[in-house]
Design a protein that fits this description.
The protein has eleven helices and six strands. The protein is of the alpha/beta class. The protein has a six-stranded mixed beta sheet. About 35% of the residues are buried.
Length: about 220
């Protein structure tokens, strides 16, 4: 019946896939889901748009490590955080063993994820493979559809040890280990203060120096100075 087919199509949740993600395997998994309407286009930001309300950047664990080394992760996080029209998030995709094969250490990966979450305010989701990434996108789409139907909800936040979290965030920057991170936290107190500090002020911190201070400033400011 035409009416029934139209109603079924209208009930599907919508996910737009960037055309550069065609070979990732996620698109193929989405296309076999009966309740998902998939479209393909060139996105200026992110890899997926879910229900026109969620902007998703997908990174494999291996790419995450490389993007930490070249500062790309934090530039992307800054642009995503400034996306006013939609709520952004990051999906980190990979098996447990991938974390041991990444281009940076596990503490650096953890620090980067904390930085993305706490400094840039981006939720981070994890998946084992492309199929699970597709399922996460579908679940997010269904939840957004229900949220639109009943209106927005507000949730509070909970923090752990502030000092430890700040140190882990700083260790996402290449060449900043626990000792240098501790020096920065002791000197400035908060990530916000470190972000607003000048290169000269950062360089005077014990164990930092001009080269590391300049790199830190570029990363925390999203690559712009």
């Amino acid at each position: 019946m035409p009416g029934a087919m139209s109603s079924r199509a209208d009930d599907r949740v919508s996910i737009t896939v960037d055309d550069r993600e065609r070979a990732a395997g996620v698109l193929e998994a989405l296309q076999v889901m009966d309740d998902v309407l998939v479209s393909i286009g060139r996105l200026s930001l992110g890899d997926y748009v879910v229900e026109n309300g969620l902007l998703v950047e997908r990174k494999t664990v291996l790419d995450l490590g490389l993007s930490i080394l070249d500062g790309r992760l934090f530039r992307q996080a800054g642009r995503l955080a400034r996306a006013a029209a939609m709520r952004p998030c990051l999906i980190v995709e990979g098996a447990v063993e991938d974390f041991d094969r990444a281009a940076v250490s596990r503490p650096a990966l953890q620090g980067a994820i904390l930085t993305v979450t706490l400094l840039y305010g981006l939720p981070v989701l994890y998946s084992n493979d492309q199929g699970e990434t597709a399922r996460l996108l579908r679940i997010a789409a269904c939840q957004l559809r229900r949220r639109y139907a009943r209106g927005p909800e507000r949730f509070g936040s909970k923090t752990g040890s502030d000092r430890r979290l700040r140190m882990l965030m700083l260790q996402a920057v290449p060449d900043i280990g626990p000792a240098r991170a501790a020096s920065l936290v002791d000197a400035f107190g908060s990530i916000e203060a470190i972000t607003s500090a000048s290169v000269r002020d950062l360089a005077t911190t014990a164990g930092i120096g001009t080269v590391i201070a300049d790199r830190l400033k570029r990363i925390v400011s999203g690559g712009e100075r």
